[in-house]
Amino acid sequence: MIRYFGLRLAATALTLGVVLQPAPSHAATPAPAMQMARISVVASGKGSPVILIPGLSSPRAVWDGVVPELARRHRVYVVQVNGFGGDAPGANLTPGILDGIVADLHTLIAKERIAGAAVIGHSMGGLAALMLARAHPADAGKLMIVDSLPFIGTLYAPGATVAMVEPQAKAMRDAQLASYGKPASDATATATANRLAAKPASRALVERWFKAADPRVSGQAMYEDLTTDLRPAMKQIATPITMVYPWSPTGPTKAQADALYKTAYAETPHVTFVDIGDAAHFVMLDQPEAFARAVDAFAGR
Q1: Nearest CA to 142 among 40, 54, 272, 283?
Q2: Which pTM does this prediction carry?
Q3: So what's the pLDDT on residue 28?
Q4: pLDDT tier at 224, thresholds 50, 70, 90
Q5: How far, in Å, CA of 128 to CA of 123, rounded?
Q6: 271 pLDDT exceeds 80?
Q7: Angle ∠(205,242,41) on CA atoms, nearest 5
Q8: Range scoring the smallest mean pLDDT among 93-102, 119-128, 176-185
Q9: Nearest to 102 by CA among 127, 140, 128, 123
Q10: Is the pLDDT of residue 94 over 70?
């Protein structure tokens, strides 16, 4: 059953944004507080710093359910990858998106003097958070990783390698790049959103967000996500990690999800697991109250 669950998630990861393309032009958005090469950042609130990083093709709005409460006690920095949320892609039309996100986060932390910040990352944003902790151990005081793995290839098989995943990742990336400017398939967008979220309202948001993402950025970011393997580095990441993951009575069950995530983070020195039931990948949308409680406990007062 774990293998079936993994294959289903892998299929989802590979299809994210493949047919959810916007037209070549992008809608105007308010100027962000801070514009960087690979990301933009909006800051609010006062107090100890918290950085929020969304996942593949997701805008910063994915965090709307927790930002207002966090900002009452914390200085909150909400990231958006350039090319997502209808924003212009900027430097993200070139490879190196994940490394560039990490570099921009490191620059942000140095500029704002917020070393030791609490960092929360969802999906690809969780992978970026792990990469930040590996490259710059002093930048993050603690991590909350939301439904993300050190190497997504393990969803195929525990012994998967980058070499095994790379050919399919490349094909999916190239197809996505070639689709830029073509009409999106509403049916496929809906089907993809249905795999990623459990509740009707959540699915509607996810569908809209992925349609707004630039497929050139989504394709390259997806390729880098699929071909990044942090498993060898997990023993060296001493930053405390809170691992949040979803499960559902209809699958994956709690037992299946427990086995998947606890195996993936087994070698991490300091990890706490938080499971949230009756939810899918976008757990913050499906179970906003339970997720908000987890964030509150993680961020502290």
Answers
A1: 272
A2: 0.91
A3: 35
A4: very high
A5: 9
A6: yes
A7: 50
A8: 176-185
A9: 128
A10: yes
| pLDDT (0 to 100) of residue 164 | 95
The pLDDT, as a whole number, for residue 11 is: 40
- Residue 20's nearest CA partner among 59, 61, 57, 63 is 57
CB 61 within 8 A of CB 86: no
Q: Summarize the confidence of residues 237-255 as an average pLDDT.
A: 95
Which residue(s) pair with 118 in the sheet?
A: 50, 142
If you search the block for the tokens 């993050």, which residue do you land on?
A: 140
Q: What is the side-by-side order of every strand in the sheet holding 48-53?
A: 34-35, 39-44, 74-81, 48-53, 117-122, 140-146, 241-247, 271-277
Asked if 200 contacts 285 with a C-beta cutoff of 8 angstroms, the reply is no
The full length of the chain comes to 301
Report yes or no: 279 and 248 within 8 Å, Cβ to Cβ.
Answer: yes
Q: Which pLDDT score is estimated for 250?
A: 86
Nearest to 176 by CA among 135, 139, 107, 223: 223
87: left (phi over 0), alpha (psi -120 to 50) or beta: beta
Burial of 51 (0-12, 13-18, 19+ CB in 10 A): buried
**All residues at 6 or more sequence positions from 292 whose CB lies less than 8 Å from its CB, including other chains:** 65, 66, 69
Question: Per the structure block, which two tokens stand in for 203?
Answer: 């699915």
Query: What tokens does 163 get?
Result: 């070499």
Least-confidence region, from 24-28, 127-131, 184-188: 24-28
Per-residue pLDDT, 187: 82
